[in-house]
Amino acid sequence: MARGGINKTLVTKAHQAVLARGENPSIDAIRIELGNTGSKSTIHRYLKELEEEASTRLDDEALLSQPIKELIARLASRLHEEAQGIVDESKSRYEHQIKELSEHCATLTQEACQRVDQHNVLERRLDETCSELSAKSAACDALDRQLSEASQRDASTAALLKEKQAHLESLEEKHRHSREALEHYRQSVKEQRDQDQRRHEQQIQQLQTEIRTLNQTISVKQGDLTQLNKDNARLISELSAARKATQDLESKLNRTDAKLEDANKRLQTQSTDLQQYADSAQRQALQMDELTQRLELAQGKVKDFTVSQAKLEAELSVKNDMIERLMAENRRQYDEPAA
Questions:
Q1: How far apart are CA 31 and CA 10, in angstroms?
Q2: Which residue, 29, 80, 138, 325, has most beta carbons within 10 Å?
Q3: DSSP characters over 104-118
């Protein structure tokens, strides 16, 4: 005897039993759990209702408890504080670095100005020395012209030349010494000027190297500052998104509180009906258990009756065979006297 129709309660119990064994709650598995009873369309409909109820329970925001709401609020506040702390710390650190770089640049600029002033002073000294040398060269040229004129006059007047010969020799000796002194002075001035120029070029190269290094450092710091500005913009956008999400959560929580109040009121009005329905369901469950026990007893009796019927049918078959053999033997005995 087959079982009666299935209901949602039986499908739910079978679904939970299959899940408890770690198996996939398919339609065939549920039907096997129900004892190969019930149509697959009915089982599919009940399983679909169970899935919809489960998804409704998981997606209902009213199930959020107050500790979860408080945790969300604390997380949003903590995120805001940490983001603001990171922004303030980064801003203070890079402002301090920019200030140090500005002071270092001002110091280097001042030193460069001092070096330029020293260079200008040396150039003025060099110009003055060159002017003095030009004046002395002019004096020497004038002296040469005077000597030339004196030579011409001495040519015309040999007597005056003899008288002035000694004086000319002394003048020429002085002029030679003056030229040697002038040449020595020129050489020393040239060497000093070359040394000053080389030292000045070294100082300029050193300043240029320092300026290039400073420019590279400033470029790197500007890149870091640009990256920091990008990070600050990203943090501000994330903070705005977090604030917006927090506001949305607060509004949803407010709506959820209102829904909870309405649901509590409806639940209070429905509690009596639910209690009555539970009592009725419990009575029906007891009746169903009693009917199930009766059905199992009936099935056992049917099974025993089926076994007895099979035995009787076997005995009847054996007796029919014996009767047929006896009748055949009687006919044979009856036919033999007649013959």
A1: 10
A2: 29
A3: HHHHHHHHHHHHHHH
